[in-house]
Amino acid sequence: MTGMVFQVARSALKELCRLIPVEADASGKVIDILDPPSPLEFSGGSPVGTLHGQIIVRSLDLWPEVGTDRTVLHLAFDESWVELRGTDRSASPLAGALNVSFTLMFRRIDAEGGGSLAQLCADLGSCVVKLDPDPASDARIDTAAQPLAGWEVVAAAEAALTDRFRELGQLPAGFALTLAEGRPSERLTTVSALPTVHFADVDTLRVLADYGPATEAAAAPDELPLRRTVLCALTPPGFQQTVRNPAVRAMVRSMVADRHYAEYIGKAATPEDEKKGARLLGEYLDSEAGRQELAANTPPPVGTGALVRHVPNVPDPFSDFDVLIDRIELSLGDGRINGELHAHGEVNNFGLRARVGISAVPVVSQNRVELSDFQVGEPDVDVSLPFVLEWASGILTDILAGPIAGVLAPILLSAVANEIADSLLTAEHLSLDPEELAEQGPSLAGLPRGMSFSTLTVTPALMRLDGYWTVYVEDPRPFFPDVHITGRLTQEEEPEALATGQVWLECRPIIGVVMAVDRPTAGSVSFEYDRHTLHATVELALSPRYVPGPFTYSPWTLRVGYRDTYGYRDAVGGGETYPLEPGVLEVTSLVWLPEPPLHGTVEQRTFPVTVRGDHQRLELDLPAEAANVVLFLETEVTDGLGRSWKPTGSLDVQNLTVDLGSAFADYQKECAGTRRTLRVGRKASLKDMVTRESLAEAVQHAIRVGDPALVAQVESIGVRHGFRAVAESMAARLRHG
């Protein structure tokens, strides 16, 4: 039995695919997603060695297989490349399409705290990847693959990319239902079996959910066109099990609780006593005795009992009497939800039967279902009279109809109005953010965040909610292609040049600054220091990122500057520009010579720089004579598309250092704690600010309209004292009015 039909537009699923993780760090945290443009790196074996490549995904689409649960993730790419490691063979740039075929399915997972969930997921663990280069790219691959055939390289790339996607396994789609396998369910978010999934057409994914055994079977409509991007629909049996049944049970529980109100809560003297009484009443209703009383008062078709209600204020000559409510029905109608209540009883030894109907229009507001336009039908009362009194049945019906309707109609209204909104729309909304999803775990049932319903339609065959699924995508690593310089500095000390000494430092409170003093004072602290002399080796390389090869490299250039300990420690650029070619380069530059404890001097020096390597990778040796300098590096690279990149970089080299030890760092931190904020002057009052603003507006207006008095005064001041006097005079006028 199909109880619920859930449909999602292909456009929403496409947005969902943008969240597929494509890269994670060592801890498993997702650092990049398939949000075009996006890079996909891959490596794998080939008949002639290791194949390595990168696909730059520019767009994605979904190509569903109608009538099945399979779809193809179509990824268009360009500016991509493959290379055979250990050889000089590569193919670039490449363009074409990558097609990833996978299934959408519900899987059974354990829920936190026990039980199971049915979770919608994309099963990439069994996907198949096909690489479809365009003709120009096929030709480049054929050339690079020789003596192999180009298709062998393509097959190796497909195998590597298939492994790459299969590593993702089954990815949650943010939609989960509680699974009560084999048991009937009366909750819209709880199903009795794993839902089934298939594409109803090329634009619609359909989910069919089962709520377990029902009195009647219902099939999902063959065609249920989407009006927006998501739809949730209940068939009549699904409506009865997940709306009518819990509504009637909640109404019966409320009325049974009313009977015991005086016993548990009525005598409470304080709010605390009321809370305790309400808790005890709830415990009674959940006990075996309470469940038996609830069952005895639950009318068909939900239960097998009858609910007793008293009918007061009956007109003379009749006495007040009791009726047994023996049936409560809720059903779907044309644009309305209909309710009907049946009851029987006895008044003044005459039997009677009554039927009361209501209807209401359901609407959805802020993801909650509400009811409006309540209508109560005329009660249908049938009094059983002896044959000789049948002439009086119409009179008796008119007399009894009002009191009976006054009792029965509110019961039906309560059942419909108070419990009609099921938990689907108020359930926990699941995050699709990879980090949040990892934190909350597969433990919650509900709808994804961003899913909301805005319209509700009722027909005798279906109740449907239409809305939108807005998938929020925030790429943790935006796509920025570039070619940048990477540098690695290693240094070795020259032991014979090690020098030691002693300095005195003093903390200046209030400002929290450590300063050097020439001689010991009452507040100074002495520190031992080591002065180290080193020589450095700098390894430089060019690192293209998301840029296709093959690359053409140009010579590097070098400028040398220094960075002092004053101001903002800005590097001061060198003057002359030196080309970097293998050999020994004589460099003349200003260098920084640190002096203990906190100062230093600038000196011009000439020193040799040994250069090794080529235009892609360089190694520079800087002797101790270079002291402390900053290297400013530039080069140019042309990529496989003929684009020019001009990476630049800088690297600090400190061959002379003064080490005051960890005790100095602690002293600095302690001194910084004495810093205080000084407040100078007074804060302008609200009156001052308002007055100043008003005066400023008045003067600006006078200037705009050319007020003669103001113009004459300004000209007089300007002639005598100049522009500065005019400005000061205007400021004074604004201050003093």
Describe the protein.
With 737 residues, the chain is α+β, with helices and mostly antiparallel strands. The chain contains 13 helices and 39 strands. Strands 24, 25, 26, 27, 32, 33, 34 and 39 form an eight-stranded antiparallel beta sheet that branches. The protein has a seven-stranded mixed beta sheet with strand order 4-5-6-7-8-9-10. Helix 4 packs across helix 8 (393-419). The chain starts with a strand and ends with a helix. Residues 385-409, 411-445 and 719-737 have low confidence and may be disordered.
Write the layout of secondary structure elements.
Blueprint: E1 4-9, H1 10-17, E2 21-24, E3 30-33, E4 38-46, E5 49-64, E6 70-84, E7 90-110, E8 116-133, H2 135-145, H3 150-166, E9 170-179, E10 190-191, E11 196-201, E12 204-209, E13 230-234, H4 236-259, H5 261-266, H6 271-286, H7 288-296, E14 307-311, E15 321-332, E16 337-347, E17 350-365, E18 368-376, E19 380-384, H8 393-419, E20 428-430, H9 434-440, E21 446-448, E22 451-459, E23 462-469, E24 482-493, E25 499-508, E26 513-517, E27 524-545, E28 552-553, E29 556-563, E30 571-572, E31 578-580, E32 583-595, E33 599-613, E34 617-622, E35 628-634, E36 637-638, E37 644-645, E38 648-654, E39 656-659, H10 662-672, H11 686-705, H12 708-721, H13 723-736
Parallel strand pairs: 9-10, 20-21
Antiparallel strand pairs: 1-12, 1-13, 2-3, 4-5, 5-6, 6-7, 7-8, 8-9, 11-12, 13-23, 14-15, 15-16, 16-17, 17-18, 17-19, 22-23, 24-27, 25-26, 25-27, 27-34, 27-39, 28-36, 29-30, 29-31, 29-35, 32-33, 33-34, 35-38, 36-37
Helix pairs in contact: 2-3, 4-8, 6-7, 12-13
